[in-house]
Amino acid sequence: MTAARQAAVGLALAAAILAAWSGLHGWAVFWHQWGENDWWRAPLLVMAQTWLSVGLFIVAHDAIHGSLAPGWPRLNAAVGQICVALYAGFSLHSLAAAHRRHHAEPGRDGDPDFHPAAPHRFAAWFLGFFRHYFGWRELAVLSVATAAWLCLGARPLNLVAFWALPALLSALQLFTFGTWLPHRHAEGGFADEHRARSLDYPWALSLLACFHFGRHREHHCRPEVPWWRLPAVKLQADRDPV
Fold first, then answer.
1. Which of 83, 76, 108, 97 has its CA nearest to residue 211?
2. Which of 47, 69, 94, 241 is the most buried (most CB within 10 A)?
3. Mean predicted lDDT score pLDDT of the chain
4. What is the DSSP string of 63-77?
């Protein structure tokens, strides 16, 4: 695949994810009226927004690697920054620096995504992961954004249900399928120095789980491949199914 075609497909998918997230976010936060059908409708909205929030982060992740639009570093940076700002007020520059360390030292003490004190404990690892990436800066940015949304007429309950909750759930989803399952220490170790394993899920489940980011050993071996092409990557060694 040429760089131009990869950029065209990647940017089209990114635009679709951004448009879907923004449209659903705007409608749910500003115009959703609670009613008797929300016992089933609200959970569906939360799940949809959670999955789209995961998509925002995955698009930004591709931007960090330059695989969103190969050969267009400023475009990658611009799209990536928009995605992480909408996601949780993050700085793409800071995320990129941490992610480069993750690829340099995966599953070791120097890896900011790893929890060497408790490599087998989900809760402790997730708490450390969350604290590392969500700090006072992000809290301040989201506080200002929340105040602005309320001034524009957003409903407080809607903000919690359709913005805050999906953001938290998507962080848990990203951690589970993109960090914990691929990098946790288990019997048998890892196939190579990338210290990552892949989740051998069917295509549709892989997409729903984490936009194919569970194909994690493929990603570490071929970081230039965008998320939507990961299922097509074939490694010489068999994947370690989870």
1. 83
2. 69
3. 91
4. HHHT-SSTT-HHHHH
